[in-house]
Amino acid sequence: MKLGNLWANGVAGAYADNYSNWTAQETWTEHFQKLPLAWMTLLGLEDIPDKKLMSGESIMNLIRIITALILAVLPVAATCCYAKYRGQSGRQMRILLWAHWTVTGLILVGYFCGALSVANWRLSPIVCTAFIVSMAFLRWAITKQKTMQRAAGVLCVPLACFCLLSACNVLLLPTNAEEVNVQYQLTNMLEKQGLTYGYATFWHANAITVISGDKLKVRNVSVNENGVQKATYQTDSRWYEDQPEQKNYFLLLNNAEYQKLDERKDPLLNQAERSFVLTDSNGTTYQVLVFAKNIF
Asked: Is the pLDDT of residue 235 over 70?
C-alpha cells in the first residue's frame, strides 16, 4: 500500500477512496445478511412474487439458485481435496485455489466491514474465480477420481443449463442501444454540434470518448463547491493542456452540476462563448458550455 501511494504521487480518486474505508461496526451484521441474496441476484436471480413454482420463469430461477449454491460449495470441496492433487495438473489446481481464496478473502473483508456491500456486482471477481475453480475441480473429479465421476457429471448438468440460459439472455439483449442509452444519445447530440474536445464528470467523460471512437475527446473533471477541477485519477495530465489546433472546448454538465456552479457564481459561466441544452429520451437535461479557449 505504501509503494502504491508512492507511485500515485499524491493523486487520489474520490470514487475509489469512498469504497476503501471501514464502516460502522453495527452495519457489519446487515452486510453479512445481504450476502446470500446478493450472490444469487448477481447470478441472475429474479424477483418474481406470486409466480407458480413450475412456471417457465420459476424453473429458470431454480437453475440460477442451484448454480449459485454449486459455485459457493465446490471451491470448498476442492479445498478439502487439496492433498489429493498430484502432478502438474495438481499444482495448477492448487494455484487456482490460492488465487480464489485470496480474491475471496480480500473482497469479503471489504464487503462485510466496508462499503462494497452497496452493490452486488462488487462480488463479480469471486464469481469469476469460483466458476474457474469449480470447472477445474469437476474436470479433475471426472478424470482422476472414479468414486466422484457420477456426482461430478450430475453437477455439470445445472451448470450447463445455466450457461445456456445466460447465452440466451445475451442474445435477447436489445440492439437499439443508440436509441435508449443516455451515453449514446449524448455522444450523437454533441457530434451534431460539431464539438470535438471538452470536459465532463466521471460517469460521462470516458464513456463518450469510447463510444465516439475518439472523435469526441471528453476528459474527466470534478464539479464541486470549489468549481470545476481536474480529476487526475486515471487520467493523463496532458489532457488538460491546450490542444494543438483546437478552436474550442466544451463543458458538459447535468442540472445538479450546473446548479453548483450557479450557486457559487462561478466566473466560468460568464466566460462561455455559447451554451445550449441537451435533453435525453428520459427527459433529463444537460447544459453544454462552449469556450473559445481551454478552461484550465
From this structure: yes
